[in-house]
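Shift notes (night). Ran NIT1 amidase while the centrifuge was going.
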Amino acid sequence: RECGVWLSLGGFHERGQDWATTQRIYNCHVLLDPSGSLVATYRKTHLCDVELEGRVTMKESGFTNPGTQLLPPISTPAGKLGLAICYDLRFPEVSLALRGAGAELLTYPSAFTVPTGSAHWEVLLRARAIESQCYVVAAAQSGKNHEGRVSYGHSLVVDPWGAVVAQCHEGPGLCYAEIDLPYLHQIRREMPVMGHRRHDLYGNITAPGLETSLCPQ
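Came back to this:
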C-alpha cells in the first residue's frame, strides 16, 4: 500500500484446513495488489524429493502437501501473470499450460541449492521462457538457510526470446527489467509455435512390441 506496487511473494509455509490430520504445510506463492489485498494463492504442485549422493538430500513430501491445481493467469499492469514455485520449474508442462491459458509472464520464486542452481538454474529459466514465449521472473533465496542448506540465489529475469535481461548474484540484491509486451507479441507472431503444436500426437506413443496386430491369423 505504501509503495503502490504489486508483490509476488513466496514460498510461504501455510497450514491448510487439513493441518490437524496431515501435520503437513503447503508451500504457497502469494500475489498482492497495490491496495495490499490478496489476489491469488498458488500452492506448489511438484514437491522436491531428490538425493544427490554426497551433495544434496531433500524430501519435501515429508512435511509438505502438494497443491491440487494450477491457477489461471492473473491480469496485472505488467501483463497476465502465471504463478509457480521453485521445483515446478523443472516441469515444462506447467509453463505450457499457463501460456495456453493466456500467461505473458511466469513467476518462479525459488530456493535452489548450490549444486542444482549452479548447474540448472539459468538454463531451465531460459528454456521455460523460450518454449512458452513468456517473460520469466525468478526471485531466488540466497545464503545459508541452516547448517545443512545453502541457497544459490542469482535472481533473474528472462525475456521471451530467452535473453537474460536482469540478474542478481551472490547475497541480497535488486534488479530491474522492462516488460515489453509489444515485443513479446511480435515474437509470438513471427514464430507461432503454439499453433504448431501436435496435440493429436503427444501422449500417444506406443512402446515397441506392444502394438496390436490386425493381420488375419
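Residues 100 and 194 are 8 Å apart (CA to CA). The chain is about 20% helix and 30% strand.
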